[in-house]
Write a structure and sequence with these properties.
Blueprint (H helix, E strand, L loop, with lengths): L4 H4 L2 E3 L3 H19 L7 E8 H4 L6 H9 L9 H14 L1 E4 L3 E4 L2 H4 E4 L9 E8 L5 E11 L2 E4 H5 L16 H11 L3 H10 L4 H24 L14 H11 L10 H17 L3 E3 L9 H12 L8 H18 L4 H4 L5 H15 L4 H13 L17 H20 L9 H14 L20
Length: about 450
């Protein structure tokens, strides 16, 4: 099992990695599929199923599919050009595709929300179709957006995993294997993860990519801390990160601030990211958009508030975090539609706790303990976004996930790495809990907070 640091941390757009980025990626893959066909096509159609249908409008899934079928991809998203193209497509009912020409696609009639049973492979399913001049379907693919921007076809979902692309020196697929390899090699988790990455790329490409990830994370925090106004979507949720930051800065030096106010800084950094995500801004999946604030907030806390912190070690943080995130994804899920928010903010908190413990000098055993503590105390968390928007409770939830990450790392560092519940068992408990969880609590906006809202 190998998931790169660049699989866990993808640069993209809000508000959702599974509901926005994934469908856009699926559309791009479908266009590539059509380019390889021995015959031409005249039009396109799409249908959204399961969670993509129920919360698709709130997550901008419809916009993502339209733009994906127009050739847009998350990593190179141009918001100004996208808005202009959306207007043109809705007015003219066509998309202009390189290598395919002008194709009919009128979103009002060619993009359907199917509120029936979900497709059998996953809660986040979409069917993309190509038609001939008479409007008959001549090619189609089913895609599943399985969380964190990862997309698989129906065939790929049930297929055997592909052979490793390289011989990795530390091919761990469980936390137990990871710790055994660390003990045998004398290397840290980050060092083993780095060695695995270098089996696929050169050191300059790896280091430049990691610096890029942190630069986008940091810029997202800064934009969120400097922006105010009301978030889109109809809930009229006001941005709060800027006002809280300004209040915290005014209180500095007055000797009136209680020690626990550091939690407000941590929460504010996370909220800044998730307010940007809710507004459709550029974010980094960590491991998802809905949980994008936890890891960068924890890094920012470390850099700005912990003596001795240095940006030179951010790579160590991110490599450690990605190793933990890979274990969660491989052995359970990072999809809110599959396992609830425990799989998103819970996984993010475990990743952040591990990364923070590592840069604070933890042993591999203490790092594993930190991740387990953070994940354990998110077990059972539902995904119940009000109106299907990644706003309530998602924005504040990231702040609390970051606080738990800091606390988990601190607790683990107070011990020697031995503890009762192994991380592998905790991940399995999360998987089982997600399997047993009612569908209405898994990103469908059909239960929980999503249906217990005040009358406005």
């Amino acid at each position: 099992m190998f998931l790169s640091v660049f699989d866990m941390f993808k640069i993209g757009i809000g508000p959702s990695s599974s509901h926005t980025m994934g469908p856009m990626v699926a559309a791009a893959r479908f266009l590539d599929h059509l380019r390889g066909l021995p015959f031409g096509v005249a039009g396109l159609r799409a249908s959204l199923h399961g969670s993509l249908a129920f919360t698709g409008v709130g997550h901008a899934t419809d916009r993502a599919v339209i733009l994906g079928l127009a050739g847009f991809i998350p990593s190179a998203y141009d918001a100004t050009r996208a808005e202009a193209e959306l207007i043109r497509i809705k007015a003219e009912g066509t998309v202009e595709i390189e290598g395919l020409g002008t194709l009919r696609f009128a979103p009002e009639t060619d993009l359907a929300f199917d509120y029936g049973p979900p497709l059998p492979g996953h809660a986040n399913g979409l069917r993309l179709m190509a038609t001939d001049a008479q409007g008959d379907v001549i090619a189609q693919e089913v895609y599943y957006s399985i969380g964190g921007g990862f997309v698989v076809t129906e065939a790929e979902l049930g297929a055997e995993p592909p052979a490793p692309a390289a011989d990795f020196p530390y091919p761990f697929s469980t936390a137990a294997e990871m710790l055994a390899m660390a003990r045998a090699s004398g290397k840290s988790i980050a060092q083993m993860k780095r060695a695995n990455e270098l089996a696929l790329m050169g050191p300059n490409a790896l280091d430049d990519g990691i610096r890029r990830i942190w630069a986008v994370m940091r810029a997202c925090i800064d934009r969120g801390l400097d922006s105010d106004g009301t978030l889109p979507g109809g809930l009229n949720v006001k941005r709060r990160a800027k006002a809280i930051r300004e209040a915290l800065e005014r209180e500095r030096g007055l000797n009136l601030t209680a020690p626990h106010v550091i939690n407000d800084w941590i929460s504010t950094y996370a909220m800044a990211v998730n307010e940007e995500n809710a507004a459709g801004g550029q974010v980094v999946t960590a491991p998802t958009n809905g949980a994008a604030g936890v890891v960068p907030a924890t890094i920012r806390y470390w850099l700005d508030h912990v003596p001795g912190a240095s940006e030179a070690r951010v790579g160590e943080f991110l490599l450690t975090a990605s190793a933990i995130g890979g274990l969660v994804k491989h052995n359970a899920s990072i999809s809110g539609a599959e396992c609830g928010c425990q799989a998103e903010v819970g996984a993010a908190s475990a990743m952040a706790a591990a990364g923070l413990a590592a840069v604070l000098g933890a042993s591999p055993e203490q790092v594993e303990n930190a991740a387990e503590i953070a994940l354990e105390h998110h077990l059972g968390m539902t995904c119940d976004p009000v109106k299907g928007l990644v706003q309530v409770p998602c924005i504040e939830r990231n702040g609390l996930g970051a606080i738990k990450a800091v606390s988990a790392a601190s607790l683990a560092l107070r011990g020697d790495g031995t503890h009762f519940m192994p991380l592998d068992n905790c991940i399995e408990a999360m998987r089982q809990t997600g399997a047993d969880m009612s569908e209405k609590y898994k990103e469908t906006a059909l239960g929980g907070l999503a249906v217990n809202i005040p009358n406005c």
